[in-house]
Fold:
Amino acid sequence: MKFCTHCGHPLVLKTPPGDHLPRYVCEHCGAIHYENPRVVVGCVAEWQHKVLLCRRAIEPRAGLWTLPAGFLENDETVEQGARRESREEALAEVEILAPLALVNVPHVHQVHLMFRARLAQGRHGVGAESLETSLFDEASIPWPEIAFPSVRYTLECFFADRRREKFEFHITTWSKPLSA
Amino acid sequence: MKFCTHCGHPLVLKTPPGDHLPRYVCEHCGAIHYENPRVVVGCVAEWQHKVLLCRRAIEPRAGLWTLPAGFLENDETVEQGARRESREEALAEVEILAPLALVNVPHVHQVHLMFRARLAQGRHGVGAESLETSLFDEASIPWPEIAFPSVRYTLECFFADRRREKFEFHITTWSKPLSA
Structure:
């Protein structure tokens, strides 16, 4: 962030009076530009005891499997966002049932919020950001080819809850790997 | 949003190829500037069956009562954000126990996420954005002077769950009032 979005003048990084963190501040028009984490919304969509996964066509992690998920947009609720992403990535209509997992991903400034959902009529197809979509039962989940730790965690919560027939809302933090 | 934060040139509003919504695009450097909802994190901090509220010193809703809460910052988890806001607004150390309520506020591009928490030693004080802080039992909550519908909803969930001795995670949407 180098230039003010309001007036186009250069920004400086400094802590505004009364604030506790450095912000990008425009000394020309006085605007303060805050940067905040973004929310990723998605779902585990179930149909006849199987769940819907998408093989990613885009980076990061192209070629690996993920849940339908993406950035929450302005003017929509988290449930609407999860439905939209299922439609975009897997041409799937889903009914959102309940929140399933929240994963903090602070090192990339994200919060992932995943729902349990019901896939309408088992229908799905390959959206623009997917190479392939498929329904998997628990035994056939391609665990070594799961794209992200937050997707792995969400699937683990889902199957563990389903086995004990009691769904809860789970929360965890995906910390930056030591090797990164 | 009028100028590119990367190069300072004017932005145009258009739908990028493969996208589904208009975005602010820089035709000089090619940057696409996405705008996404922000997360507000806070908590119901309990001590000896009372909960901590803050009377707001700042707009919006100055003079009314709220839970300690504010915008999630980059590089922190939702739990860390809720703890930080309790410290800033009510000089309170809290132990986060569990997620309590999520409130979509799409008309202002926000998601409010509230936790149950334990207030350490019942200690609190007046932070920079508060006029007053106080502990209230359920019967003395100043319901007509609660600042926001999301705070009211969170408190209602908290007391209802506490009465039946079973805490859950609640989710709702605060829709734009028809009069607005």
